Amino acid sequence: MASASFDDRDGFIWLNGSLVPWRDAHLHVLSHALHYGSSVFEGERMYGGAVFKLTEHSERLVKSAELMGFEIPYSAAEIDHATMEAARANNIVDGYVRPIAWRGSEMMGVSAQKNRINLAIAAWEWPSYFSPEAKMKGIRIKTAEWRRPSPQCAPVHAKAAGLYMICTLSKHAAEAEGWDDALMLDWRGRVAESTGANIFLAMDGKLHTPTPDCFLDGITRRTVIDLAKARGIEVVERAIEPTELAQADEVFLTGSAAEVTPVGQIDDARFTPGQICEAMIDDYAKAVREPAMAEKVAAE
User: Fold this and answer.
1) Alpha carbon distance 10, 147 (integer Å)
2) pLDDT score of 1
3) pLDDT of residue 289
4) What's the CA gap between 70 and 295, in Å, rounded?
5) Which listed residue, 10, 101, 158, 291, has the most CB atoms within 10 A of its CB?
6) 134 with 180: CB under 8 angstroms?
7) Contact by Cβ (8 Å): 289, 47
8) Could you give the CA distance from residue 187 to residue 148 in angstroms, rounded to a whole number?
9) pLDDT at 34
């Protein structure tokens, strides 16, 4: 059984082209990414030995790096292959995959034109993001004080590590008061997302979700939109004001880690997970195990 600490585990991590023992996957304390946030990452789930929408994740990792001004020295196809290597090396069947790319320590300062671009991929067994008990009754969310920045202030469409700083602050503040997560508004005061997942509201038989103009358009988000449309449920992408939350019949979050997680409360507004939540949970559970939607981690 692996230890609780993520730096002290058995297994292997794929690092810059080869598998290295888990405990030996180090970076220097003067790495640019540690000081200036110049890193991008992905969060992926494995089901039955398959990585759900692996290539979409690898392609987004490459694109995120481009938005952050650097080029990962591996193609999306090579990242796919490396992901399979990492998963096989750790005998993961149902778990989580974390690729991350970052600027190294060759230059120390805001400018880092000559720094090496590193890539690591780790894979481990991981249960549901929220506890089964919390998920069944719907999680409780509190609106955060921090807000998602304007596209003129940050590379908002990159899955960049630095953009999650306010998410950590917001989630910690919410948890300290007994909530499960925090709701992030955007710089205009509109509903954006939770700290690590997109949000959907069921209203009058339709699904409403914020337009992702200043936050990540999640792969799970897009999957759920397709699944809802396949059921004949109309999906409306639009600006959503916080005052509209109380009008929703059902609310749920979507993300690779969160999957489809019902919400039972946001601030003073309460919701009862119902037919739409149940349908999306069931449909997503089936989709993640469809061969056409995933990349099999099989021995070569």
Assistant:
1) 38
2) 41
3) 86
4) 27
5) 101
6) yes
7) yes
8) 6
9) 96
Buried-exposed string 136-150: b where 16+ CB fall within 10 A, e elsewhere: eebbbbbbbebbbbe
User: Is 300 part of any domain?
Assistant: no
Question: Is the domain of 136 the same as that of 117?
Answer: no
Q: Are residues 117 and 183 in the same domain?
A: no
pLDDT of residue 135: 65
Task: Kindly report the CATH number assigned to the domain that includes residue 79.
Answer: 3.30.470.10
Maximum separation of any 2 CA atoms in the chain, in Å:
56
Report pLDDT for 189: 98
CA 237, CA 195: separation in Å to the nearest integer?
19
- DSSP secondary structure code for residue 229 in this structure: H
Separation of alpha carbons 225 and 284, rounded Å: 11
Domain boundary among 93, 124, 155: 124
Residue 142: active-site member: no
Give the residue carrying structure tokens 């991008």.
40
Q: Mutual orientation of helices 219-230 and 54-67 as an angle, nearest 10°?
A: 130
Residue type, 137: K
pLDDT of residue 127: 66
The answer to whether 53 and 223 have CB atoms below 8 angstroms apart is yes
The DSSP 8-state label assigned to residue 48 in this structure reads: T
Q: Please tell me the pTM assigned to this model.
A: 0.93
Residue 208 tokens, joined: 């409403």
Cα–Cα nearest to 43, from 94, 103, 100: 100
**Could you list the residue range(s) of the whole structural domain that residue 62 is in?**
12-124
Beta bridge partners of 270: 265
Q: State residue 169's pLDDT score.
A: 98
Residue tagged active-site, from 159, 229, 286, 296: 159
Alpha helices in the chain (DSSP H): 32-36, 54-67, 76-89, 132-137, 165-176, 219-230, 275-287
Q: What is the mean pLDDT for each group of 10 consecutive residues in the chain (300 residues)?
A: 78 98 96 97 94 97 98 98 97 96 96 96 81 72 98 97 97 98 98 98 96 97 97 98 97 95 97 94 91 52
